[in-house]
Target: non-reducing end alpha-L-arabinofuranosidase
Amino acid sequence: MKAIITIREEERTGEISPYIYGQYFEHLGNCMYPGVWDGDSARSDGQGLRKDVIEAARELGVPVIRWPGGCYVDLYDWKDGVGPSEQRPVRPNWHWGGQELNRFGTDEFLSWCEQVGAEPYVNVNLGTGTLVDALRWIDYCNGAETADAKWRKDNGREEPYGVRLWGIGNETWGDWEAGQLGADEYAAKLANWAQFAKKYDSQLQLLGVGSYEGNDEEWDRKVIEAAGKYLSYLTIHIYGCSVDRESSDEYYPIAFTPVYFENQLRKMIGTLETTLSRMNKKPGHPIRLSLDEWNIRHYEVDPSGNGGYLLNRNSPRNLQDAIFAAGVFHAMIRLSPHVGMANYVFLVNGNGVMNVTEDAVVKTPLYHLFKQYGQWMTGKSVSVEVQSPSRLTPVPLVSNPEYGEELARKHQPVSSPYIDAVGAIGEDGSLRVAIVNRHLESGFDLSLGIPEGYGSSAAVWSLHHDDIHASNTSEAPERVVPVLRMGVSIDNTLTVPAHSIVLLRFEKA
Ligand code: AHR
Model:
């Protein structure tokens, strides 16, 4: 098959935020224990943090990471998670089941971030916590002279951590949340909490909860009107869904789910822009979207409980998931600079970018994808025109069946191109082009319209495997790995294999 990709270098849409390649940790199942913290294990450091996981995360280049939840945080008291490790209370994990050791708390999270070089993003407990709890948490992290700053120093950390990103609430509209609120109540409470957080430190960047998949314009409007002047981000969570991961019937709905993501992001950006332009007094600073939870969920029965249905212990992320994730990156790159952050669910275990057991760290195809896009697909987003055959596909397959029939919407089929491409100009002036071929069976001969001023050869990175369900395991950790070729003669044509992801980098001539 054939397609044409034309790069319009002069049409730059905006700065791509490096944070769109961000990650997420939550206290659910085996995600934190032993995924990130493993006590006295030979693989852990003096704080119990897994050194091999830190090393892999550093190599991955995690730009930002959200913690501790999610639903978990709305029943979490941060004070349980600081102080001498062995004296911390063991509590029930109120949301996900099982026990919470509280061994991975604020100091461990922030130390982990510093070692990895990731920006921390902390979500406070709006559900069952108080405003004072939240402010004291900020002060524990960032204060200099106060009682909570002294508590931090007594716990071994002299310098303030300087945490800038603070989320206020999580899916507050959901009846599964501890502390569900209506739009008016949430908007008022958020404005109130945000006001005091900003009074404490005007430089903090605050995130307010946006509506379910961007579908409730009224919710988003009320939040922006009431609290927009304090907010740097409005959050949106979108989950695709998989019912039978091994079935080839699911391939196209999953590969095309990013079309649904882009639609929902555009919808929320539209609400944001319309609301801001109607407001008498605009905030005077940009408010960006934060897609701070996203993935393809597979509802797998796991008798262990403990949030097990989300853990996907038997389904490591595979090439199909990488095709999906690349499409989500493309949507966010096209929507730069309106999308300022995203946090994949999760970095470790449970749909993870890495699968961590007591004695191994396995890098999934997603790991390689995040790493490469984070390195190359940054800078200024440029317009790319794609002429490609399309396919009529219903997306997403089913949206969140756990939310009940009324929300389990089956979408009309949409016609979407097999080839999806985006471009970026890096700080060094090089041109980067990312291409996803979503066709299951057919390769494509691409005709590339590369602007003048770039060499005719490129560095070419590709991720491909004949089997779309191929994944990496501790027995076969390198089954799906990328290939990097330097100085490949392109001369405006390129052949890409079926179901593959290919990135090109052209230096200035
Ligand atoms: O996948 C994790 C959970 O999903 C988060 O805790 C919650 O915010 C979302 O519904």
